[in-house]
Every structure is written in structure tokens, then in C-alpha cells.
Amino acid sequence: MTSPLTVSLGTSPWGKYEVPGVVAPFDTLEKVMPLIDTFCSRGRKHIDTARIYGYGTAEELLAAAEEKHSGLTVSTNIFPARTTPLDPRYEPYNLNEHDLKLGLERSLAALKAGKVETFFIYDPDRNVPLEKTLATLDKLYKEGRFTRWGLIRHPAWLVARIQELCSVNKWVKPTVYQGIYNPFVRGVEAETIPCIRHHGMSFEAAQPLGSGILGGRYRKNFLDSEHPKGGRFDPSHLIGMHLRHRYWHDPIFDALEMIEQAAAKHGMTARECAIRWAHHHSAIKPELGDRLILGAADAQQLAEVLDFVEAGPLPEGVAKAVEASWQKATIALRDGLHTVERMTKAPPMRCIQKLSVGSAAFKPALYYQIFVPCDIVALVLQSVGGAMSSQSNGSSQAGVNIGLAGLSFQVLTLLVFIGLGVQYAFRFRADAKLGKVTMSGFNSRSKWVFGMVSLATVLIFIRCVYRIYELSDGYQGAALHDEGLFIGLESM
To answer: What residues does the NADP-dependent oxidoreductase domain cover (predicted)?
Structure first.
């Protein structure tokens, strides 16, 4: 018997994604039809898609599928990629009148439809006055281009502001909010859900299985090389890096283990727990029109997940374990911060993970595993040499030699570090030209960070070279008493 909870079939992996060496899992009608057949056989009819999925080709596949399954309803969204660069292959839109109309018309043309059920705005556009966006949406609604419209990734205060503006100007109001929601990601509970409930909006929960982290496949010690090429958490491409940034943290895996241990006592899996928790124990309210957006690797997995949707509440012990797991997961996710481990990793590692792991000479973790100990050794040698020289009033040649050894070792490691940085820059640029990586992560903020880190590294290198020259004749040498050089270079 069909559950009262409405379910949407998500299509984010559909279409002709361009990951070098990878065949997209759902790039043809023959590949997507088993999913739609299974979905529709359970009395389900709603499909969630987006203009950016498959660079527009997901909507085209859905149009072809609709020819075999009448009665499907569709939601799509527009992403302001011109304001928030993500991938240069995405069609660039603002949320001004021209681009809103153009984006929606392109979606409708790809879907071969005159209207969609829901048209979502994915992300605010701070370069376009909000009133102009809302007025355009009102006009498109009155033209019959969509039945309702909704918001994705808008903070609660902005949702309230939009509702106020629509009310004052008698524009059509948004009636639905879509957000990421699962046992590990529950930030919407604090402000967003109370806000949308106040304004009579329904909620659509995306990523109920944490993009697969709750699927039972992945473990804390999963090696990068074990990820299928182009897979959800493959660090060599944009989507994989994005999802790892959200989910791939030790506290998340610890929380997952808590759920699995409780579930095993009842012959259940974490996947089943996550779906049943969403339906019966979360902030999702079927009676208010809320939806769950589901994805699956194949038709068999989709049928299994739909069975979980239609199952009853969790056993009390399992429900408590899921709730407790959230407390552990918040260590990694609270306020958008991630694990202590991630926060303390060297900046080069974080930069490489953000841009392209594949362009690096070796695994990102090795950068801080190699260079941090090298820095410590260099500083210890310099400290020992300085202490010996201090105790002898500068007459200890051994102290000078040990200090020089520390400085020389630091210069050597800095040279290697700078060389690897230059090599990475050239490889990343070459990979970008070949389409292996995207430059979208290299925005103005990234350029500023890279520029400052590079400048600091070069200045430290110059200072270390100067220190070698300064000590080359000992503490009584002329170089040490050159006031101009000291003022100009010692301050670096």
C-alpha cells in the first residue's frame, strides 16, 4: 500500500556528464527507463530535475521518458551560475528578467512541455535586486509556465523577506522549500523549517541517504583508489570533491557506525534506517505536502528504497541511535565547519582538494606529512644552534654551523615545496584546457588566498637565504652588521 508520503525521483546523475574516462550511468533512455518503470509501477509520478543536470541533457532524457509514461509531473530549477560560478560548462544565468525567462524556456523546450509543476530558484542572486526577480516570477506564473515556485538554499531570513515582498506587492508567493536533510545534515531544523511552516510552505528533503554515505558501501579507511572513476565520492572530479567536503569526515563515519550497530540487532541496514527515520521520526510532515527526493543506482535498489518508504516507524532503540548519531555528526557539520582534522590540515592540502586532486604529484595528505616535519626539524636545528651561540656569546662555531644547517635544510625544503607548487599550477592549467578539471573552484577568493600564500612562501624563502648569508661569517662577520640589509630582509 502506498505511503501518504509523496516521493520524487531525483535525476542528478542523469545525462551526459563529462568525466574523462567515465561512461555516465544514466546517459541514454535505455538506462533511465528501468528506474522510471519501477517508480511508476509503485504509483509514483513526480520527477525532480534541474537545468544543470547533465548540462541540460537530463531534461531531454526525461522528455523522452514521458512519451512512454504519461501523467508524470516535473520540478526543475535554475542555478545562477553567472553569479555563483560552479562549472564553465553550465549555462550562465542571473536571476534577472531576461535570464529567468531564458532558463525556464530552455527547460520547457528540453522537457517538451508547456509548464512544469514546480520551478525552483537555486541560490540567491545578490547581483540582481530581489524585487526584479520576484516580479519576473510573478509574471511567468501568470503566463502559466509553472504551477508553483519554490526556493533552494536560501537562509530563513531571506525566505521571510521574500514572503513579505510578495505579500506587499501581491506577487505569487513561494510555497515550497527544498533542502538537504538526512540523519547527519539537519541544519534546516533550527530556523528554516520553523520559518517555512510559519509561511505555509511545504518541505522537500534532498539527499536523504547523504549522497550514498548512508548506503553501507563506504568506510572511514576507504582509499581514494577504491572509488569508482566518476563515482559520488571520487576526489578527482568536481562533484566528488564537493560531496567529500560535506560528508567525508571521521565523525560522520563514527555516526554511521552507531546506526549500523543498532540496525544490525533488528536485521536492518543504515539505508533502511535513514528512509524510515525521514518518514516517521523527522521534521518531514506528509500531511503538509512534504516530499522525499530519492535516487538509486539501479531499479532494484530503487524498489528496495520505496519499500522502506512504505514501511512503518523504526524500533525505539534504532530511532534513539539515529538521534544520537546526529549529535556525533554535528562535530563535522555544525555551522558549516568540518572536523578538527580538516581544519588543522595544511593549506596546500585543502587547496588541492578544492581544485583537483588528480593534478597533484602525490596524495594531498603527504604535503603536510612531509613538509610539517621538515619545518620542525629545521626550526629545532636553528634553535639549538642559536642557544649554543647565545651561551658562548657568539664564539661557538658549532652553534653557527648547526644554525646554518637548519637554515640550509629549510631553504632546501622550501625550494622543493615551491617547485611542487609551480608543477601543480602548470598541470592544473593543462588539465583544465583538456577538460579534465574545471576552473570554477578557482574564483576570486581562491586567487586571493593562493596569491597571499605564494607571496608569504617567497618572502620566507628570501629571508632564509638572507639568514644563511648573514651567518656565513659567524656572529662577528660584516654581513651580520649590515644595518640596511637587516632592516630590509630580517623583517620578512
So the answer is: 30-325
